[in-house]
Amino acid sequence: MEESTDSSLLRDYIAGSEAAFTELVRRHVDLVYAAALRMVVDAHFAEDITQATFVALSTNARDLVGRSSISGWLHRTACNLAAKVVRTEMRRRAREQEAFAMQVSQSEPETDWNRLVPVVDLCLASLGESDRAALLLRFFEGKSARDVAEILQLSEEAAQKRISRATERLRRLLTGQQVSLSAVALTTLLSTQPASTTPLGLVGAISAAVGTAAPGGLATGLTIKLLAMTKLKAAVVTALVATTLATPIILQQIALKRQRDQNVVLQQKLTALGSERDELSGQLAAAQQARDLPRAQMTELMRLRSEVGPLRRDSQELARIRIAQPARPVSADASKEPEAIPNAAWANVGIATPADSLQTFLWAGKAGETNFAANLMRWQRGTNITSDALELMDSGMLANGLIGGTAYWAKTLDSFRVMSEDIGGDNIARLNIELTDKQGKTKSHTLRFVSEENQWFPILHVWSQGTTNLRASLEMPPEFAFGAR
User: Fold this and answer.
1) Is residue 308 domain-resident?
2) Fewest 10 Å CB contacts: which of 46, 55, 320, 473?
3) Is the same domain home to 464 and 383?
């Protein structure tokens, strides 16, 4: 009999079938429990996280019904929940762990698989959805290449290629975490990883905790049996169930040896701080002896303090007048055309004004300082950006590409000229400029800058074009709809 797909089981569950949800739990519980156990290293917490993951699945069932496989979604959700649990638990137990670490003897060298355990799930969460699903199905759920192809609706050859590419990408991510393995060695470790035994009765406990929602009211009709949890407080569970596909929080298992080394360093710092304390005590005693100023110096000090208030009020009034000024030509002489600043003269002149910020950004692009340009940029996302594109932007992968392309664009310019600027009361400045490229063609643009603590930053507008492409521009396009910056 042909096995039902995850999508068909979700549809049956939405229609009211408790057996369909139980089958989903049975099918994926080993994957979820193993991922949770690798991150929290505690069987009881792993059980709680597994239950919370499937509670989240029941809540989001309608949104996931279009997926052929939910393995990737379950893995990411489990990682998010585990990260939150570890962070909460580590805050409470930090001092106890530190005291315990000083008493534990030197641990034995780790095996190759033990080297992977602290970071493998973090690296898996950093992969794309399709790559992560392929690896989880093949190596963590034990599916054959043919089974993976059927679930992902690919040919067997295409599924095998996707698994190979995903393995290589995972290997590069692991190398960035100081775990260097060849592709063959990584494949071998993933294929022969120790099995994590799911506690008996966990499937039934999850199904009982979730229950069956009434048709048409899945999200609101859900009753979570919090008493089935063993350790998590109700407030923490509520927060965990609400967790969605957020950017995974990068956490690593803290080794006892590292804690002992940190204790030694802290002890050395305490000794150094004791010496500094003694030195500062001596300086304080000397300062107390000389604290009585001569009468003439005290009188001058009081006079200067009395002038601070009026000066501050004058400064605030000047700032309000500057904001209220309308758009004006940059040149002091309105009859004189503003001068163009050539490419060779661009320099890092700071960001005290919108014009300075523009020149500093163009200089960074010409000099190839993409990191500098990235720190200078402020995003303005369009509301039509898809969730996949937003996920890539938040992970930094797509953001780096857009900033790199924008910085490269600066190299194609020959000069720029600021025609006028308009600083509004909303901390937004609009700069009317003329850009001349290396072929001598001149084009007018209006760029937007935002003020943060009396410094100005260029705004990069990003919006979706079609369903798969993203566009980025310093000039706001007419069809741009504002989203969160």
Assistant:
1) no
2) 320
3) yes
DSSP class per residue in 28-72: HHHHHHHHHHHHH--HHHHHHHHHHHHHHHHHTHHHHTT-S--HH
- The answer as to whether 41 is a domain residue is yes
pTM of the model: 0.33
CA–CA distances in Å: residue 416 to residues 131, 338, 404, 458: 44, 10, 20, 15
Helix 354-367 crosses helix 397-410 at what angle (to 10 degrees)?
Answer: 100
**Alpha helix stretches (DSSP H) within 227-294:** 234-241, 256-289
pLDDT, tens digit, 9 for 90 and up, residues 29-57: 999 999 999 999 889 999 999 999 999 99
Alpha helix (H) residue ranges in 177-327: 183-191, 202-210, 234-241, 256-289, 295-324
Round to whole Å and give the CA distance between 357 and 403: 16
Instruction: Say if residue 220 is in the same domain as residue 160.
Output: yes
- Same domain assignment for residues 260 and 198: no
Q: In total, how many domains does the chain have?
A: 3
pLDDT digits (tens, 9 = 90+) for 191-248: 887 767 777 777 777 776 666 444 344 433 433 343 344 444 433 433 443 333 333 3
Q: Please tell me whether residues 191 and 161 are part of one structural domain.
A: yes
Residue where one domain finishes, among candidates 229, 251, 273: 251
Cα–Cα dist 483/485, whole Å:
6
310 falls within a domain: no
Sign of the torsion angle spanned by Cα atoms 153, 157, 162, 167? positive
Whether 268 and 239 map to the same domain: the answer is no
Strands (E), 112-208: none
Q: Which domain holds residue 73?
A: 6-96+104-251
48 and 59 Cβ atoms separated by less than 8 Å:
no
Rounded to the nearest 10 degrees, the angle between the axes of helix 71-101 and helix 256-289 is 60
The single-letter DSSP state of residue 111 is P
